[in-house]
Amino acid sequence: MSATQLAIHGGKPVRDTFLVFGSPLISEDEIAEVVGVLRTGWIGTGPQVAKFQEEFARYVGGRYAMALNSCTAALHLALLAAGVKEGDEVITTGMTFCATANAIIHSGATPVFADCDPKTFNICPDAIRNKITPRTRAILPVHFAGRACAMAAIMQIAREHKLIVIEDCAHAIETTVAGQHAGTFGDFGCFSFYVTKNIITGEGGMVVTRREEDADRIKVLGLHGMSRDAWNRFSDEGYKHYQVVSPGFKYNMMDMQAAIGRRQLEKVERLWRRREEIWQRYNQAFAGWPLLLPPPAETDTRHAYHLYTPLLDLERLKATRDDVLAALTKENIGIGVHYLGLHRHPHYAQTYGLRAADFPGAEFVSERTLSLPLSAKLTDADVDSVIAALQKILEAYAR
Predict the structure, then answer these.
(1) Best exposed site among 126, 286, 311, 366 by fewest CB in 10 Å?
(2) 331 pLDDT exceeds 50?
C-alpha cells in the first residue's frame, strides 16, 4: 500500500457508521398518515391522490396536475399526450439519468442529445439549435440538480420552430425563474417523488400542464386507458361502468403514497432552507481546495438544492474521480455520481453513434463529478463528517 493510500485508508474512518446518501427525512406525521390510509381501507388511487394533485398544482402554479407512479411515467405520458410518435425526434441533454432518454424511446421517437454547459450541467440553448431538423418535434430540458435551465432562450427556440417543450423537473420542485416555477414554462412539467428527491412518496411522479385536454389524456393513459378511474368506479356514489378508450398503462399513484407526499409538501419550504444551509456550509468549507464548486444560482432564479455536485480539479490531484469515491466509502460516507453522460453508456453510444468528442461539456463533467450527501435529514455532525472526510482525501491526494 502506498503512502497516499495509507494516509487515506489507514487508521479510523471519520465516521463509525455509514452515512446513507440521499436518505429522506420521514417524521411521525407521515407515518401516521399512512396508518390512517390503511385504516380507511382505501389504499389505491382515491381521495388522497386527488387532494395531493390539487395541492401540488397550487404550489407550483400549474392549472392541472396528474399524479403517477414515477417521473419516468410522467415523461412518457407527457410525450404521448403531446403527440410525439415514431419518426419524430426529441432533443434532450446527455447529462441526465437514463429515464429521460428511455421515455423518449418508449414513445417511439428518437432521442437527439445536445451537450451541456460544463459549469451548470444544464443543456446549452445553442446546442439545441444545432440539433434541430425537420423531424424535431419537441425539446426536453432537464433542470439539473435543481438549477433552472435557460428557459427564456429555450422557449424562444421552441416558438421559432413550433416545438413542444416538456420540462424534466425531477430535481426541481422548488426551482423558479422570476418567481415562476419550473415545469410551468413549457407545455408539460414532470416531477419526481422518488425516495432521494426533495419531496418523497417512495416512488411517484406528477405531470403539470395548462391544457385540460392534455390533462384528460394523461389521466386516461395512466390507468389502462379506462374512461373512469378506480375512485369514480367504486365510490359511495355507486358503481359506474367504464370503457377502455385507449391501450393505456398501469401508472397510477396510490393513496398511501399521496398521503406521504401531502405531508412532505407542507414542509417543502423548511426542508429547502435546511438543504440551502448545508449547501452553503459545503461551499465555505471547500473554498480553496482542488474542487470546482457549483456556481451560485443565476440572477432572479431559485435553486432547489437537490444535489451538491462539485467537480474534482484533477490537474491538482494524484487520483481519479473513482479513487476519491472509493476513499469516501472507506470513510463511511455515502456518495453518488450524477451522472456519467449518456454517450458513455453502451446502448446509447452504439444505437445513436455517440462519440465523446461530440460532447465535450458532458465528457468534462463525467470524468470529474461526484455528489455529496444533501438531505434535510443530515445533522450538523453528519455534515461535519462529510467535510472532514473529503478534506482528508483531497489533502492526501494533492499534487
Answers:
(1) 126
(2) yes
Last residue of a domain, one of 266, 287, 307: 266
Asked if residues 163 and 136 have their Cβ atoms less than 8 Å apart, the reply is yes
Q: Assess whether 170 and 291 both reside in one domain.
A: no
Catalytic residue, chosen from 197, 219, 240, 377, is 197
- Measure the CA–CA gap between 353 and 209, rounded to whole angstroms: 34
Are 226 and 274 contained in the same domain? no
User: What tens digit of pLDDT does each residue of 241-268 get?
Assistant: 788 889 999 999 999 999 999 999 999 9
Which range of residues forms the domain containing residue 348? 3-25+268-397
Q: How crowded is residue 325: how many other Cβ atoms within 10 Å of its Cβ? A: 18
Burial status of residue 295 (CB atoms within 10 A of its CB: 0-12, 13-18, 19 or more): exposed
Check if 330 is active-site: no
State whether 231 and 112 are in the same domain. yes
Q: How confident is the model at residue 11 (pLDDT cuts 50, 70, 90)?
A: confident
| Same domain flag for 358 and 300 | yes
Which cell numbers hold the place of 4? 497516499
The residue out of 249, 266, 283 marking a domain boundary is 266
- Comparing C-alpha atoms, which of 136, 137, 142, 138 is closest to residue 115? 142
Beta-bridge partners for 308: 372
Residue recorded with cell 413542444? 164
* Cβ–Cβ < 8 Å for 189, 257: no
Q: Provide the whole-model pTM.
A: 0.95
